[in-house]
Design a protein that fits this description.
The complex is a heterodimer.
Chain A lengths: L11 E12 L2 E12 L3 E5 L6 H8 L10 E4 L2 E3 L4 H6 L2 E4 L11 H5 L18 H11 L14 H14 L4 E5 L7 H16 L3 E5 L3 H7 L2 E6 L2 E7 L5 H9 L17 E10 L3 E9 L3 E5 L6 H8 L7 E6 L2 E3 L4 H7 L1 E4 L3 H5 L6 H6 L15 H14 L16 H13 L5 E5 L7 H16 L3 E5 L3 H7 L2 E6 L2 E6 L6 H9 L1
Parallel strand pairs in A: 3-8, 3-9, 6-7, 7-8, 13-18, 13-19, 16-17, 17-18
Antiparallel strand pairs in A: 1-2, 1-4, 4-5, 9-10, 11-12, 11-14, 14-15, 19-20
Chain B lengths: L2 H7 L1 H19 L6 H26 L7 H19 L4 H26 L3 H20 L9 H4 L3 E6 L5 E5 H19 L1 H11 L1 H6 L4 H27 L10 H11 L11 H21 L4 H19 L8 H9 L1
Antiparallel strand pairs in B: 1-2
The chains are: A alpha/beta, B mainly alpha.
């Protein structure tokens, strides 16, 4: 959707020219320009490490740009800004982690910036309630203002963060990866709110990996690559493929890679599996070397089904067969021993122990096999195993003893894979494997997945991104309301056809 | 969700319920519990604990912990004796100023170390706990002080009553000071921008920093406030026991910490209330008093407090969660 703010007559809220920034000899930003008009929805695109966050930090006064920079904010020329100045001018950032206070009430979170200050003064609890209410009205949402923030789902917390920005009279809002952890319908609601804001003259800059939604809503996109400006493009007529190409500098041809595996031996067979309230009568088979895509909206039961396959929950009815033998995993530990590996959706918090080393993270599921004769952990065996998987998955690291938190999203995802592959599974379940991973790195991950399948591993790929399942699966199952409603052959369908089926 | 329901689900609500049960139980099962004399002596004996508890509450809200405050109070007592000696006596007004200021100074030592070296507060305050106590024992040679200014040891009653049978009930000055400390702390954390920033800092320090909260000020405020309460508590303690003994307060920190945690203050920061703090101290006090009156071995006390903490902490994580279950949410979403 194109907003009318694209008209040349609309004044700029922010203009930056010749912005450069160097950190210890590394050129993080090199002569970059960036302009946003009043009420415009603008997309800032680029892979991790391209300089997007450096640019935001300059706008918000966290970093000072090199003297060559020429910045005009709301028509005012400025050399550099302090965070306070930036806020006072009406610039707000909604960070990916939202930077909210989980135990404080919704109202207090929204009005928090008015509390900040070193000089003691009295604040009346609820004194700004009217203002908070009018902002939520403006956004067209209703929230329980007294509820502690941590009782709200992520999507609503995001709305709290937006309301907080508006409370400070923000006229230019940066949203850092706003839809990374949202489902499709939550994202739609968020975009609706953004449209609303745009109509009220508030400019919104999206920083996002998930390009489909962003292209739909923004009118222009600024692309950065390796700290350099690639250009500013109108989103009208822009395709995801073209944008990906601009961001990575390489043409990533996506083609359907499906093969017919119907002759192979079945690895997993599920018959009439039911867990009341979550999924009903699920039957399917995955064969050796097959990648089975499982898609559907949130609440369709796809993740819940996976949880039952790995023993996290107990199905009420039905049977699971692995290599022809019926199994009833009672715990994740048992499922691992049986040969099922599960890479969870929320891998950054659940799949990895961030401050621990790459080496410890990748060997944590198989410690038993790394013991020496007297039952102590053998550093040799561990080192050998870790080196093997680092090579196999081409994980880019400095030292296996570095903390996992020092790696990029794509490489972190590979460490999770290494951890599970080390358990030598027969079935690998991947739940939304590319959430938070940038476009270039996604291709690498899918190359690995394909390679694993070619070596005979059976893979269940769960994702709500249509392109992901279409281009990478051999067969696609579609779940809705807890049931499998359809099966597709990727070679006989298209992105558009599939999207209509799933979202309509 | 209606407000009443939410209050019932809180730690404070449940603790209040338990205290009411204990109160009724002890009133019915003993003759002496529900007497003016017993209740006033309960207040007198626990005034200092509550003064310390509200100080510690502020530190816990800000996401820290302080192990050193009880021995810091002893240090304040000794230094105050010395200062009053130099002044040739002193009086109550100077007493509050001197003890308050020395207490704040000791608290700020903690704050500076924690903020300056970016070390978590439990490590720093264990270190200062040992350092304070070691220095105190070294310089005092473990000797107690009984020669104290008269104003300091004279009993001052803010309430007196003689029953028909001739039994006196009275409330000490310490109880009045306790009420004042509780009120001022309540105002600080509930009604000032600084207090709300303390909660925010304890809740999510990184978000608070990004919002422009002055982190150094928050640490100084939290530990300075704790220090001030430690000093004032130390002053009142001397008024009650009429002596300064170097190791008299050693170990009290854990009793107070237990009470504050029972009152719902979260060790990770960001949560805790004055009401909870009062109830926590009351719970500990009534338990101790009740065991005495029922003639149960005093060793049972620690056991009960330990069990109560375990029950309080685990129950607030388990069954009393009144949010809808994950499954219910999913079913709702699937509709």
């Amino acid at each position: 959707m194109q907003s009318s703010a694209q008209d040349a007559g609309t004044p700029y809220v922010l203009q930056m020219f010749s912005v450069s920034k160097t950190f210890g000899g590394v050129r993080a930003l090199d002569d970059v320009s960036f302009e946003v008009r009043e009420g415009e929805v603008h997309c800032l695109a680029g892979e991790n490490g391209c300089g997007k966050s450096t640019l935001i930090k300059i706008v918000t006064g966290v970093y000072t740009p090199e003297p060559s920079a020429d910045i005009k904010c709301f028509g005012q020329s400025i050399r550099s800004m302090s965070p306070k100045q930036s806020r006072a001018m009406g610039i707000a950032v909604i960070w990916q982690d939202l930077a909210l206070f989980p135990h404080m009430s919704v109202a207090e979170n929204i009005a928090f910036d008015q509390m900040v200050g070193n000089l003691p003064r009295f604040v009346r609890v609820g004194s700004r309630l009217d203002q908070v209410k009018s902002i939520l009205d403006r956004l067209g949402v209703q929230l329980d203002l007294d509820a502690p923030l941590n009782t709200l789902p992520i999507a609503q917390r995001q709305i709290v963060a937006i309301a907080r920005a508006l409370m400070g009279d923000a006229r230019l809002i940066f949203m850092d990866e706003p839809n990374a952890s949202l489902t499709q319908s939550e994202t739609d609601h968020l975009l609706e709110i953004v449209r609303n804001l745009s109509a009220q003259g508030v400019a919104v800059v999206f920083v996002s990996h998930r390009l489909a939604e962003v292209l739909e809503i923004s009118s222009r996109v600024t692309v950065l690559r390796d700290g350099k400006m690639v250009g500013v493009f109108p989103t009208e007529g822009m395709t995801q493929a073209r944008l990906t190409e601009l961001m990575t500098g390489a043409s990533l041809q996506q083609t359907v890679a499906a093969r017919d595996r119907s002759a192979a031996k079945p690895v997993l067979a599920v018959e009439n599996l039911t867990r009341h309230g979550e999924f009903e009568n699920i039957s399917f088979t995955i064969r050796a070397g097959e990648i089975l895509g499982l898609t559907g909206l949130i609440g369709s039961g796809r993740t819940e089904l996976a949880h039952s396959l790995i023993g996290m929950t107990k199905p009420d009815q039905g049977a699971i067969y692995l290599q022809g033998r019926q199994i009833k995993p009672q715990s994740i530990r048992q499922a691992i021993d049986l040969g099922i590996a599960y890479v969870s959706e929320d891998r950054l918090s659940l799949g990895l122990i961030q401050p621990q080393s790459i080496s410890d993270n990748s060997s944590i599921s198989v410690l038993k096999s790394l013991l020496n004769q007297i039952g102590l952990l053998s550093p040799d065996k561990q080192g050998q195993m870790v080196r093997h998987w680092i090579n196999e998955l081409s994980i880019k690291i400095g030292d296996p003893d570095d903390a996992v938190s020092t790696l990029s999203g794509g490489n972190q995802q590979r460490v999770v894979l290494a951890k599970w592959l080390a358990t030598e599974p027969q079935l690998l379940i991947l739940d939304s494997p590319t959430v938070g991973v940038d476009v270039g790195a996604r291709a690498g991950i899918f190359r690995i997945i394909r390679h694993l399948a070619e070596n005979g591993l059976a893979i269940l790929l769960i994702s709500d991104e249509v392109t992901e399942v279409l281009f990478n699966s051999d067969r696609i199952l579609h779940m809705n309301g807890g049931r499998i409603v359809n099966e597709y052959d990727p070679r006989q369908t298209s992105v558009d056809a599939l999207e209509v089926q799933i979202y309509a | 969700m209606p407000r009443v329901l939410r209050e019932l689900g809180t730690v404070e609500g449940r603790l209040l319920f338990v205290i009411i049960l204990m109160f009724v139980g002890l009133s019915l099962s003993t003759d002496s519990f529900l007497t003016l004399a017993n209740l006033t002596s309960l207040l007198n004996n626990n005034a200092v604990n509550l003064i310390w508890a509200v100080g510690l509450l502020v530190v816990l809200i800000a996401g820290g912990i302080d192990i050193s405050f009880a021995v810091a109070a002893s240090v304040v007592q000794y230094l105050a004796v010395y200062v009053f000696g130099l002044m040739g006596g002193g009086n109550w007004f100077l007493g509050f100023v001197v003890c308050g200021v020395i207490g704040i100074g000791l608290g700020l030592i903690n704050a500076v170390l924690i903020h300056g070296f970016r070390v978590i507060s439990i490590v720093i305050t264990i270190a200062t706990f040992n350092a304070f106590f070691g220095l105190l024992m070294f310089f005092s040679s473990g000797r107690s002080v009984y020669l104290l200014p008269d104003w300091w040891t004279d009993r001052i009653f803010i309430f007196e009553h003689q029953s028909a049978s001739g039994v006196w009930s009275e409330l000490n000055l310490a109880v009045g000071v306790m009420v004042a400390c509780v009120l001022v702390t309540w105002i600080l954390i509930r009604f000032t921008n600084l207090g709300r920033q303390l909660y925010a800092f304890g809740d999510n320090p990184e978000a608070a920093r990004r919002a422009g909260v002055n982190i150094a000020l928050m640490q100084a405020l939290a530990f300075g406030w704790m220090g001030m309460m430690a000093g004032i508590g130390g002053l009142m303690q001397v008024n009650i026991v009429k002596e300064v003994v170097p190791n008299a307060l050693y170990g009290r920190e854990l009793e107070v910490l237990a009470a504050v945690v029972l009152g719902g203050a979260r060790l990770g920061g960001g949560r805790g209330s004055i009401l909870g703090c009062i109830l926590g101290v009351m719970f500990v006090a009534i338990t101790q008093n009740g065991l005495n009156l029922l003639g149960i071995s005093p060793f049972a006390f620690n056991m009960i407090i330990g069990a109560a903490i375990l029950i309080a902490i685990s129950s607030s994580n388990l069954s009393f969660d009144i949010r809808p279950s994950r499954r219910a949410v999913l079913q709702e979403a699937a509709k």
